[in-house]
Amino acid sequence: MRYEVEMKFPVAELAAIEGRLAELGATISARQTEVDVYFAHPARDFARTDEALRVRRKGRANFLTYKGPKVDATTKTRHEIDLPLPPEEETAEQWMGLLAALGFTVAGEVRKSRRKAHVAWQGRRVEVSLDEVDRLGTFVELELVVDSAEAEAAKTCLASLAEHLKLERSERRSYLELVLERAGRD
Amino acid sequence: MRYEVEMKFPVAELAAIEGRLAELGATISARQTEVDVYFAHPARDFARTDEALRVRRKGRANFLTYKGPKVDATTKTRHEIDLPLPPEEETAEQWMGLLAALGFTVAGEVRKSRRKAHVAWQGRRVEVSLDEVDRLGTFVELELVVDSAEAEAAKTCLASLAEHLKLERSERRSYLELVLERAGRD
Which residues of B touch A44 (CB under 8 A)? Predict the structure, then answer.
């Protein structure tokens, strides 16, 4: 089973991180807008079971992604099933129509501008995302996708890279949780 | 909203129908195997709500299809959302894994060999399927996909073509229902 091992950190500004990534030889990709629509399950409370189902639009591309419960207290390690859908916004609308017909309802939307870099660290290729999230601010995410047997080693690798990049105060809540908490406060 | 208007007829053998289709100028396609896996909903009894969700493998191609309740007593008119998935059997397995993670369980499997023809009838292009269904026998299906405003006219068209083809005793139950009934008897 494949696991997504992930750490996320709020940052005041991204420029310092960009500098440290450049020192590590990483190239930072162009900015891409990601629009994620999250769905509530017709019979399970995903907020309680710590699962998620989302349709992501990334440029013209579409994806349907299921995330299982987090299996770890400090990182955001999860079982993830991420499946490409055919492209174009119209297709995303059809898929959201199918989910609605099955009783899934929209739980919230997260819109962000993301740049990516890949860093070689401790023999692994870590994906680094520099995120500017609407209404939430700026964050850095570190991610590895590994088999379950390697989840612990992957966590150690991410923690080490985070320290090197001077990233602190890991945020375990998802962007969706943060968006919904903020909406509750407003 | 798009509706699938469909009539299905059990037949003792397909040769006579093939002859009548040829007289109407229709070309019959090569045989293709369709393997349909139907899913039960985690919170709704699809047998009671008269809905269906299925993954279809047709050669290398895969589809995810939702069928809403029948809206008519004699035909099998339904709201249908039929979405292509990326190809290959491995992809179909991944999608079935996603459905399982969301709490959908396998309700049954229908395997058939299908040949198709298209017939011009009363100004419409009717899709005719000649089906040999594992464990159930041979059937002819007539189908039109139309907007809701045209559903009545489409039904009239199919009934007229059925009469011309000497098809009788319309079967309103789905192949899945017939397979499950048969399994209950065995």
Answer: 42, 103
